[in-house]
């Protein structure tokens, strides 16, 4: 596991964060619940993570970088299944009571202790290569939209379409293995509006009226998500004069993009003048968030990110894990945007929406 030495609270959180910030969106238990008994919500999510074990085991078995991968994958599957069974019997075992952050952390710990660093590396590299080849076409289609409001909606829909590439979801992992995923087709197949949380018009209105000086974007998946969804959106912010800080994971988790991978992707996308198809990138910074999970606890981020985010006036949390499963209701000292696709039925039910529904939640801070 990575070191937590030097991790600090995200500076745009209200203080004191102990009372003002809760990372997990869905409450797994309440003070009145018996601490010795697993709650229905905890049990439901323990089962969600148990159902993911076969797909993770299959990925691990195929990791050619790890000696004896099949045996180690079996060890991971048995150990993690055992931990989940322990939590069913005693919610306070293994650092519990469990929530989405703890369950993700336990899974990553067992993978790494079993010898696996990045079981999704091969598929990430493949999807990154596909997305890089499509990047000029996606940007060209966006730039051809003259109306600024319509262009923003197209970029937002691109974020949703890219965000469907998520191999942490059992259903999506199976669909990817069977059919692959097409970004342009996904753009056309988004669930119809109104979405479960739909602040699009509000955000469009503010987009026209406001000029943010610095935006911090917490990003999610590799492939189409980061390259065809987030980067065209970030490029548009740059074109408007906004400084953009993109915060990516320090260590691999599922198929999330890492800081190192994103740095390499940008080196391939920029031209000899350092531009992203005609847009100057001198105000674009890539930063290590300090995170090593597919979810995000903003009470602990890297010092580098905290320094860069101290004067931000827009925070964007993208993806199921960072902007919906965690931080959906987080308040900030600056404007914030939470955007992503709902990929778990349990979350859809909690929000009162549909599976694969979309969330765009914009909060403006009055100066």
Commentary on this structure:
The chain is α/β, with parallel strands linked by helices and 367 residues long. The protein has one domain (1-367): Uncharacterised protein PF01937, DUF89, domain 3 (Rossmann fold), CATH 3.40.50. 47% of the residues lie in helices and 11% in strands. It has 15 helices and 9 strands. The chain has a 7-stranded mixed sheet, sandwiched between helices. Strand 7 (314-318), helix 14 and strand 8 form a beta-alpha-beta unit. It is globular. The termini are far apart. The model is unreliable at 167-180 (pLDDT under 50).
Which features characterize this protein?
Rossmann fold, alpha/beta, 367 residues, metal-binding, 7-stranded mixed β-sheet, hydrolase, two-stranded antiparallel ribbon
Radius of gyration over C-alpha positions, nearest whole angstrom: 20 Å
Query: Which parts are unreliable, with pLDDT below 50 for 5 consecutive residues or more?
Result: 167-180
Q: According to CATH, what is the class? A: Alpha Beta
Number of domains: 1
Helix amount: 40-55%
The termini sit apart by 41 Å
CATH topology tier name:
Rossmann fold
**SS class:** alpha/beta
Biggest sheet strand line-up: 1-9-8-7-2-3-6
Protein name: Damage-control phosphatase ARMT1-like metal-binding domain-containing protein
GO molecular function: ATP binding; hydrolase activity; metal ion binding; pantothenate kinase activity
Cofactor: Ni(2+); Mn(2+)
Domain Damage-control phosphatase ARMT1-like metal-binding: 50-359
């Amino acid at each position: 596991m990575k070191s937590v030495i030097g991790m600090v609270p995200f500076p745009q959180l209200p203080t004191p964060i102990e009372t003002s910030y809760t990372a997990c969106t869905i409450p797994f238990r309440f003070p009145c619940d018996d601490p010795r008994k697993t709650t229905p919500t905890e049990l439901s999510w323990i089962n969600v993570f148990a159902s993911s074990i076969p797909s993770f085991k299959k990925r691990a078995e195929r990791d050619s970088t790890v000696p004896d991968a099949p045996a180690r994958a079996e060890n991971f599957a048995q150990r993690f299944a055992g931990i989940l069974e322990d939590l069913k019997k005693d919610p306070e075992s293994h650092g519990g009571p469990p929530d989405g952050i703890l369950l993700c952390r336990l899974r990553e710990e067992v993978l790494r202790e079993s010898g696996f660093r990045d079981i999704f590396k091969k598929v990430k590299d493949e999807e990154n290569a596909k997305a890089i080849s499509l990047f000029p076409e996606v940007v060209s289609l966006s730039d051809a939209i003259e109306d600024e409001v319509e262009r923003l909606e197209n970029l937002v829909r691109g974020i949703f379409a890219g965000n469907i590439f998520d191999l942490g979801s059992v259903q999506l992992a199976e669909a990817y293995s069977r059919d692959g995923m097409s970004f342009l087709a996904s753009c056309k197949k988004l669930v119809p509006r109104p979405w479960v949380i739909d602040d699009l018009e509000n955000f469009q209105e503010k987009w026209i009226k406001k000029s943010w000086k610095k935006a911090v974007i917490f990003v999610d998946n590799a492939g189409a998500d980061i390259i065809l969804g987030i980067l065209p959106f970030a490029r548009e912010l740059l074109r408007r004069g906004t400084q953009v800080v993109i915060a990516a994971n320090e260590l691999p988790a599922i198929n999330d993009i890492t800081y190192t991978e994103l740095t390499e992707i940008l080196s391939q996308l920029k031209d000899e003048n350092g531009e992203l198809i005609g847009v100057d990138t001198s105000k674009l910074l890539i930063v290590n968030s300090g995170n090593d999970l597919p979810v995000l606890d903003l009470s602990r981020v890297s010092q580098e990110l905290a320094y860069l985010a101290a004067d931000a006036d827009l925070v964007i949390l993208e993806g199921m894990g960072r902007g919906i499963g965690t931080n959906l209701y987080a308040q900030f000292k600056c404007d914030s945007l939470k955007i992503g696709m709902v990929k778990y039925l349990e979350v859809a039910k909690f929000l009162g929406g549909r599976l694969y529904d979309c969330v765009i939640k914009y909060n403006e801070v009055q100066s």
